[in-house]
Each structure stands twice: as structure tokens, then as C-alpha cells.
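User: Can you predict the 3D structure of Alpha-1,4 glucan phosphorylase? Sequence below.
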Amino acid sequence: MFGLMDGFLKNDPISLQKDILYHVEYTVARSRFSFDDFEAYQALAHSVRDRLIERSHDTQLFFKRKDPKRVYFLSLEFLMGRSLSNSVINLGIRDQYAEALSQLGFEFEVLAEQEGDAALGNGGLARLSACQMDSMATLDYPAWGYGLRYQYGLFRQVILDGIQHEQPDFWLNFGNPWETERVHVTYPVKFYGTVEEEILNGEKCNVWNPGELVEAVAYDNPIPGYGTRNTITLRLWAGKPSDQRDMEAFNTGDYINALVSRQKAENISSVLYPDDRSYQGKELRLKQQYFFVSASIQDIIRRFKDAHSNFDEFPDKVALQLNDTHPSLAIVEVMRVLVDEEHLDWHKAWDIVCKLFSFTIHAVIAEGLEKIPVDLLGSLLPRHLQIIYDINFNFVEELKKRIGLDYDRLSRMSIVEEAAVKTIRMANLSVVCAHTVNGVSTVHSELLKTKLFKDFYELWPEKFQCMTNGVTQRRWIVVSNPSLCALLSKWLGTEAWIRNVDLLTGLREYADDADLQQEWMMVKKVNKMRLAEYIEAMSGVKVSLDAMFDVQTKRIHEYKRQLLNILGIIHRYDCIKNMDKSQQSKVVPRVCIIGGKAAPGYEVAKKIIKLCHAVAEKINNDSDVGDLLKLVFIPDYNVSLAEVVIPGADLSQHLSTAGHEASGTGSMKFLMNGCLLLATEDGSTVEIVEEIGAENLFLFGAKIHEVPELREKGPAHDVPLQCARVLRLIRDGHFGFQDYFQSLCDSVEGEDFYLLSSDFGSYLEAQAAADKAFADPKKWTKMSILSTAGSGRFSSDRTIRDYAEKSWGIEPCRFPSEFDG
Ligand code: KOT
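Assistant: Sure. Here are the predicted C-alpha cells for Alpha-1,4 glucan phosphorylase:
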């Protein structure tokens, strides 16, 4: 007999084939006798989606029955990339699908390439959210992700003559098979208008009469765990015109304007802001923040009220995670709902709200903290501004009792900044309310305590925690590096490391084993071949597989110092040019690979991209240099490209000026893939050194505590000769565009805020050490094995356990099933 606990859908290759053909015929509406790769991908994706939906129903029903405390992860950005391979691997049915497809005459890998990236985020913060969702599902936590369903994701980067151009990312044009539109899950979101005091049941209360109403519609994206039936949901909101308001407008006869205003509603969720860290006080951005916060909070409260009637229990059932300050209006929104709509007493409501939130900061410097102009907030969300003032009043009164009338400190800690433009400090609001505040690496968390939030730390030391970032080994090894995955399972004698990555330490005992080394090098070679093929197809540059593949891929930022890398490459080029043949024969050949997007308005970053292209043009066409040095820029770097680039890298560079990178997560992905790091002692690198030992990577540069003094020395400090020579080559026009590049050179020889010149010598030494190690394959391979072996601590599984235990207070809630792998 068929039991309700059995899955409805079968996963043997024949059943999968039947399902794929069903979707070809009835979902994609093509003949099952004739369909192309893209149509096959669509049908395949729909058949996978069916299985995800089944599991997510089971998971939700189970959660409902158990009613555990849930965590709601609020983030304005999720950088999910592709879903197909990740889903079938987590479901444990990749091989069955591959077989089913091959009998139909298709190759799984080829179809997987048909999928576009879901790029609903900028960089580190957004990809971290995606990794954390994977870990929350895998570890069976009762979790939800909430965000915005942008119609246009992060811009596509197109390079013309070395200059970055931005083009829209029409990612939804061909439909998105992974999401389900929940037409019945909609909430009204209010904007503008006025607040009136009214008497209700003899009590004074504030009533917000909005000037604009927009409907939020839910789109659910299933996130399957690995080795479990649990499948959680990432719920993304899209703006839709509110019929209620529209009918009024249409009835007044203003047909055109009524239609235009419908369009405006959709604009709210239309575009992702492409700058990850500057706040320009844009109204649309604030609207986006409130829109997603309001819909999410309504949804969360609705779910709570389905099972509970007393808000005293709210903090026992709900944990709210703020991913940076972007969702921090949630604090104010919950206060508003509890006080104005649920009619709780202010102090009781505040007491509840303070038990709900944990707050993660990703910024490093005070200028990175979000501030919202009071005028803007007051016009868009008049009631929220009142509530913030009230929160601040109570806080400052409390503070005076604790610290006395230290006005400087009081004004630094105030949520309201009384400057020329009066603003709300969202980070202060979040620290005041959250029960835990965390940084994303040990050094960053210390920095928060000693610099950014020193005043708050002294007041509430117990709030401050460290949750070092991590990345998911499912995507960053199993999906993107199948050869390494197979090798790891073989040598560890188990696949258990995919759920318990600490087992990778078991590799250490074989680090000198000649057989493992041999196989390890083969795996790297396979991955380098894949990357080399991509490079040739994309740029026409042929690269030698014997060369060291040296990669720096990340957003282009001055503090990340791609410029230092390029100056180093010019130095290498200059050295090779000045060598005789016998000296040249000793040079370790390099393929330097740089990739990343610059924010559209970030002129300096765009100049760095142009310089990279100009230098590449010169080097790659110089027959004196040949295979000894190549430089390629990979345009439009995104998650799916990272899946090709990272496994193929021998060396990766993480060059941030010490004290500027909160954590860095790219380095963790490279580390897992046995790529050696060349890095400054910044962010999470400090912890990587603790795990793998300083002898297994190439460290260089000023340390965090040395930076202020070096900066003090300022423009007067000596530019080392080697650096000066490289800058002279640029200034003299060796790479063309002489005038255009002068300002980049000035920045190094002038203020040198990011300390390129003072770190240059030590950077070259680290590069020389890397060359030397690469020339000794046994040594290099051992270092590479030890890198992977020591990467366990940087799994997002560990990060999520940290959050669950130290901050959210939640327990796993695993669907009991014979199917749970
Ligand atoms: C966002 C807003 C203000 C300031 C900084 C940010 C920010 C920081 N966005 N992304 N990040 C990166 O977040 C990653 C995940 O924590 C870190 O690894 C990385 O160091 C940050 O730069």
C-alpha cells in the first residue's frame, strides 16, 4: 500500500525520464519528439522542482506540527547563482538524472550550462546569505530566508576597449523554473501619508493614514538540504499594484494616471542597487527596504498567530536575523505592529522586540554604516520616524542614568545624528535593540568592540560576539569540483565529509603520500584545462597548463588592491624583459587572472579595470615573453564563473590593506579547492593561518596595528625603487592611455592611503616565495593538500551552528523519513 509518508515521485532513471518528457510536452509545450538543449533544461528543471516542492511541503507540515522556534533570515541580497546541479546533488539524485538524460540523448553537464545565474546581490554579503541558506537546510534548522525578487539582478559587465559598461540583467526573461508565485500570499505595504492621534476604546493611539499602498506578492524558492529531506524556503517579495487603491483612482476617471501608478508599484522590486557600500539617501532604496521588511513581518506574525494568541510567546518562537542594517527597519516595524495594531503597552512591546533580533555587521569603517536622512524617512514612513524618536528618547534617558552627562558620548551613541543633514543611524538602532551583535571574523569582531562600537561594547559587553563566516562545501566542492570531490571521498573512505567537513583533517596523514599527490595533481590539471578552455574561448588567449594559474577575482575596490596585483605583474614583465635567455629559462611561468565588477559610479575602480586591459594587451602580444607571463581579465565574473575559476586556480590573491576586509569568503572557497593563498593578515586570513600554519601560505604586508603609523608618515614616505620604476613605465605611456592613468600613479606616490607603495617590497617577496614553492611540485602539492585539509572551520555549517547556538536559540527539526539519505 502507498503510505502518505512515501514520496509521490520516484527517482529511478525511468521515472525521471517519464517526468522530463511530461514537462517537455505539457510545461514547455514542445513535442517530446523534438526539443533542444534549452527546452530539455527547462523540462529537467521542472521535474527537479516537482521533487523540491514535495519535500518543502513535507518540511513545512512537519514544522507546523512540531512548532519549533524558527529563525527568519532577513537580507536584501541573495547571490544564489544556478540551482540545477546544486539541487540534484542535495537531493542525492544527480547520477539518476544523468542516466535518464543520457538515454534521451542529452548530457546533464551540457543542460546545466543552459541555466542563467540568479544574481540578486552584489558580492560577499549576498553570497554568504546563499551559503548560509544551504547550511540551514542541511542542518535541519527551521529557517526561512526573506528578501526581494528583483526583476533586474546585478548588472552584466561588458568590456569595450578595456572600459566597463553596465548592461541590465534580464534574468527572468525566459522564466524562472525554480520559483513558485504564491498568488494567495500577498500583503499590503503602506507608504507616505500622515499619522493622526485617535481615541480607541478610551485609549490614545496613533493611526497611520497612508498615501500609497503597494501589494507584496510572495515568490517561494525551495532550498534543499543535503542528506536530509528538509527543504526550506527562500521567500522573495515582488511589488504589485494594489487593486484597492486603483479602483478609487479609476473611479475618479483618471484612467491614465491610475495605470501609471500601477506601474510604479512594480518598480519597487525592479532593480538591485549595484553599489555594495555607499548610501546615497535614495528614496527607492528606502522603499525597497521597508517593502520587504513590512511584507516579511506581516508573514511572520501571521504564521505565529496561526498557532499562538499571546505575544509573550513571540520570542520563544521567533528569531529575527538582520543581515547588516539593510533590514533594520524591521525593529521599528515590529514595534509599530505591537503597539499600534496589537495595542500592547510600549514597554512590554519593547521588551519583546529586544528579545527577537540578532544583528550581523559586515562593514569595517564608520563611513560604511548606513544613515537615513530624517526628512526622507519622515516623508516615506512618518509613523516609523516617531517610533524611532521614542526609542531614542528612552535609550538616551537610560543611558544618562548609566554613564551620566557625558554629552560627547551621548551624542556618539544616539540613534539620531544631529549634523548638517539630520540622519538616523541604522547601526546604532540595531545595536540598541539586538540581543546579539556580531562581526564576521575574529579580527573584525574585535574591531567592532574596540573601534566602531566601542561605546556600546563598554555598555553591553555581553551583546558582542564573533561568528566567523563560512562557505558551503556542497556548492564549492561537490558541485563545482566533482573530480576533487571523488578524490576526497576515496581517500577519506567516506562521503560523510559533505555533511561533516571537519573530516577533511583526515587528509593530513596522507599529505606526503606519493599516490595521493599524484592524483591530487591530476585533479588540478583537469580543472586547469577546463579553465584554460574557457579563457581561450572568451579572450582568444592560449595559456600553458604548466604555468601557475594565479587568480584574483572579487569586486573591484581600492582597498582590495587589484592595483597592487597589476603593479606586481608589470614588475614581473619588466624583469622578464631584462633577462637573458638562460635567466628566462628559470622563470616560473604565470597566468595572471583578474576578474570582478566595479560599481557603476566608481571611477577609480573602472580605471583599474582599464589598466589591467592595457597591461594585458602589451604583455600578451610580446613575443619576448611568450608563455612566461600572460594576463587575462575575466569579464562578468559571477557565481557560475567562480565555479570554473576557483577549482582551476593554483594561487589566489587576497590583498586588502590590513584592517579593511571584514572577513573575505572567496579565500575560503579557494582554500577548500587546494589553492594556495597569497594574502595580507586581514579578515579571516588570520584564522586561516591558525588552521593551516603560516608555512602553508604566503603572507605579506603591514599588519593591522601598523597601518595607522604608516599612514601618518603619509606622502613623505619613500616609494621603493621597484615600485617607482613600475609607476614610471605607466606614466611614460608604455601601456598607452598615459594621461588617463596618471591619477592612479598619483594615488600611490601621493597620499597612498591603501599603502601600496609601503607593502610593495614585501608583496614581491611573497610572490618570489610562491614561485620558489611552485618550482617544487611535491612541496606545492603538500601545501595544497594541507590547505584543503585545514579548510573545515570555514564551512558555513560551522557558522550556522554558531548562530543557532549562540544567538538564535534554535534546535534542528528534521523530517523523519526513510528517504532522508
Ligand atoms: C555592506 C554595507 C556597508 C558596508 C559593507 C557592506 C558589505 C560588506 N557588503 N559586503 N560585505 C562583505 O561581506 C562579506 C560577508 O561578511 C565579507 O566577507 C567581506 O569582507 C565584506 O566586504
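The longest strand covers residues 212-224. The mean pLDDT is 96.
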